[in-house]
Amino acid sequence: MTDARETAIQEPSAPVPLLDPREGIPPVTASPEALAEVVAAFAAGSGPVAIDAERASGYRYGQRAYLVQLRRAGAGTALIDPVGCPDLSSLGEVLSDTEWVLHAATQDLPCLYELGMRPTSLFDTELAGRLAGFARVGLGAMVENVLGFTLEKGHSAVDWSTRPLPEPWLRYAALDVELLVDLRDALEEELSGQGKLDWALQEFAAIAAAPPPTPRVDPWRRTSGMHKVRRRRQIGIVRELWQARDRTARERDVSPGRVLTDAAIVAAALEVPPNVHALAALPGFGHRMGRRQLDQWQAAIDRARALPERELPQPAAAYTGPPPPRAWADKDPEAAARLSAARAAVSALAEELNLPQENLITPDTVRRVCWTPPSEVTPENVGAALTALGARPWQVDLNTPLLAKALATRPPAAPATPPSTPPTTE
């Protein structure tokens, strides 16, 4: 007799709510002794391991993990508390030769790196869904469309730093890895049937081999609403307020947005308040903010106001790539023509292959090769340029012919002006 899971996988047209993990909710692993037992169990397991991590984005500073979920055949499901077990390198070691199955791997890998866990091979079910042409690639949508189950997603944005974690949250977390390997197997079969499996494997290998992300240069430039701030002195105020907020958020271990909103930073930069009283009248600095906090923000503003001109930030961050495409027609009409032809060709091929354009080839790669094409446009040189820009072999094979043709495009010649006819006299 088959259970409901097997039936639903065979009949995906009738979604079945997935309410409880097969073996129930496992206890939370929060001590070195309990972690050693998990390590032993997963070392003895077989097949791929499903892995997920829960962060406290919007509540805590940074992107550290506050719960790590794993599931593997023969080992069952484990829920690990990184607060009690901040070093998971022993678990990472026993799983080093195992394929990791993650959904949206690039979101979870950085916080797993911090815990000492790094895969040598992986399968990303979200990316697999994109390459397979699914319109909705969230975990819940994929599980429902591919396997015929519905997952309850009501706890995705809760504060996972809460201790103890409520039972409904733990159930939700365990269910996130319950069918991840099943989803992986179904997507592998789908990709194989579409002739795209090798593409996916190349993408997965690139993610696994990528180095950990490095800190952004001038992260304050990503302040929401920054585009409204034009003058260098005002931009300096954004920088000083952002940095002051970041220090406070780090010290208090809270999300920076809970210390001071981006909207408040931009409002202060645009108004340049001369004193605390003027600052308190701005949105985001109202009556709920204490005098000490207001003094802190006003001090940051005053520092920016006192900076000599040479120390003020430039309006735009240094950028080594091509200019914004909207400026190409004026700066280099031939490059603009190449880009237009390349975009049209990539769009048509992506539609034909039923996958997103950005997965077929990144827009930045297209812009760079169109702005600075090889001195001699041949398929070999175009392919080498794409490879140097980070394109995978499958992307190089598919895009080289169409981009080589696009790079030979020239802007249409301006219509000739007919010679003026001198007036006739009668």
From TrEMBL:
Pfam families tied to this protein: DNA_pol_A_exo1, DNA_pol_A_exoN, HRDC
Domain HRDC: 231-311
PROSITE patterns: HRDC
InterPro entries per UniProt: 3'-5'_exonuclease_dom, Exo_C, HRDC-like_sf, HRDC_dom, HRDC_dom_sf, RNase_D-like, RNaseH-like_sf, RNaseH_sf
Compositionally biased region (Pro residues): 412-426
Segments of this protein annotated with the region Disordered: 1-27, 308-328, 407-426
GO molecular function: 3'-5' exonuclease activity; nucleic acid binding; nucleotide binding
SUPFAM superfamilies recorded: HRDC-like, Ribonuclease H-like
Swiss-Prot/TrEMBL GO biological process terms: nucleobase-containing compound metabolic process
PANTHER family (UniProt xref): RIBONUCLEASE D
Protein's name in the database: Putative ribonuclease D
Organism: Actinacidiphila reveromycinica
